[in-house]
Design a protein that fits this description.
This protein is mainly α and about 190 residues long. The chain has a domain of about 120 residues: Winged helix-like DNA-binding domain superfamily/Winged helix DNA-binding domain (Arc Repressor Mutant, subunit A). The strands form two sheets. It has a three-stranded antiparallel β-sheet. Strands 1-5 form a two-stranded parallel sheet.
Length: about 190
């Protein structure tokens, strides 16, 4: 996979690897704070080292993390997040029917994470440092082709202005960035 090519998670194994809350928390930690051991992650996530080691091996198996051999010694293994770039989800039709619930679980976990960002982290971040918080809400009208073009241009902008952790300037901060686009003319669900 070249850096500029999207990585579509149409392999059920890769999708399952990321459809687990602990693995997602580990990836988030490694992405934000850099390398860690299973012991460190276990302490942070209130999990046993054996559990974190298992989940780290699953993430490694599918290329989301890698061991840092020069830092590892004996039983202590250090892990870092790989630069996976543009990860995309498959359309449900690209998956076998028995694998579609994994995609649904992936979305459910992601929406729970996003809800936490919107309800808890966004207000706290805005109060702490409003210059670093940018929010835009809009209603647009597009054809399906225009929406697809818009999304691809958005991804190009994200790539243009984002730095890899290793290459980021000292003043660069990690940012939660979300693009939410969905039909506004759907009936509201019963709550």
């Amino acid at each position: 996979m070249k850096d500029d090519e999207p990585w579509v998670l149409d392999d059920p194994g890769k999708l399952k690897a990321l459809a687990h809350p602990m693995r997602r928390a580990m990836l988030r930690h490694l992405g934000l704070h850099g390398p860690a051991t299973s012991t460190t992650l276990g302490s942070l996530l209130d999990a046993k080292t054996g559990t974190t080691s298992y989940h780290l091996r699953q993430l490694e198996k599918y290329g989301f993390i890698e061991e840092i051999p020069e830092r590892s010694a004996g039983r202590e293994r250090w892990w870092r997040k790989t630069e996976t770039g543009d990860i995309r989800l498959p359309h449900p039709a690209q998956l076998a029917p028995e694998d579609r619930p994994v995609l649904a679980e992936f979305h459910r976990i992601g929406l729970e994470e996003d809800k936490g960002i919107l309800l808890e982290l966004l207000p706290a971040a805005y109060q702490a440092d409003p210059a670093w918080v940018k929010v835009s809400r809009a209603l647009g009208r597009m054809t399906l082709g225009e929406l697809e073009d818009f999304f691809e241009e958005y991804m190009l902008l994200l790539k243009k202005y984002s730095h890899r952790a290793a290459d980021a300037p000292e003043q660069a901060r990690p940012l939660h960035i979300r693009l939410l686009a969905l039909p506004a003319d759907l009936p509201a669900p019963d709550v």
